[in-house]
Amino acid sequence: MTTLFDSLSMGPYILPNRIIMAPMTRGRSDVGALPNELMAEYYASRADAGLLITEATAIHPLGYGWLGAPGIWNEDQTKKWKLVTDAVHEKGGKIFLQHELRSLQEKREEIR
Ligand SMILES: Cc1cc2nc3c(=O)[nH]c(=O)nc-3n(C[C@H](O)[C@H](O)[C@H](O)COP(=O)(O)O)c2cc1C
Questions:
Q1: Which residue ranges run through the membrane (predicted)?
Q2: Given strand 51-58, what is the order of strands in its sheet?
Q3: pTM
Q4: Residue whose CA is at the smallest distance from ligand 1 atom 18
Q5: How remote is the CA of residue 69 from the centroid of ligand 1, in Å?
Q6: Which of 72, 85, 99, 109 lies 20 to 30 Å (CA to CA) from residue 63?
């Protein structure tokens, strides 16, 4: 019988177990939508899960939804995300970033 703790093949990835952390807004980013050490600690401490999905992350300033949310639309933010991904990878974890698109689409509608 398959259990939660059995590995899972997912496209090119082999997850060590079937525990997948849902994306959850934490609102802990620094000013400038910059990821930080606290976020690295938060995600790295959950790296035993088969896969982590990050909180919604804006890919454009127009898609920025709420205070404390991280972004990934510029070089500084991208570099700071490396803090998070390196910390997770050091513990053998896998992490996907959730792109925030919805509010961008909504704002585009408003602008039209
Ligand atoms: C505090 C909190 C923050 C959340 N943030 C996000 C988010 O950033 N992106 C997202 O897609 N879902 C978010 N969710 C929704 C959860 O991912 C969702 O509740 C989870 O997948 C469980 O699904 P269910 O509500 O259908 O059981 C959030 C939920 C909570 C409780």
A1: none
A2: 20-21, 51-58, 95-100
A3: 0.90
A4: 22
A5: 14
A6: 85
Burial (Cβ within 10 Å: 0-12, 13-18, ≥19) of residue 50: buried
Query: Contact 48/79 with Cβ under 8 angstroms?
Result: no
**Can you give the pLDDT at residue 14?**
97
Helix (H) or strand (E) holding 20: strand 20-21
Non-local (6+) Cβ contacts of 106 within 8 A are none
Nearest CA to ligand 1 atom 20: 22
**Strand, helix or coil for residue 111:** helix
Identify the residues whose C-beta falls under 6 Å from ligand 1.
Answer: 22-25, 55-56, 98
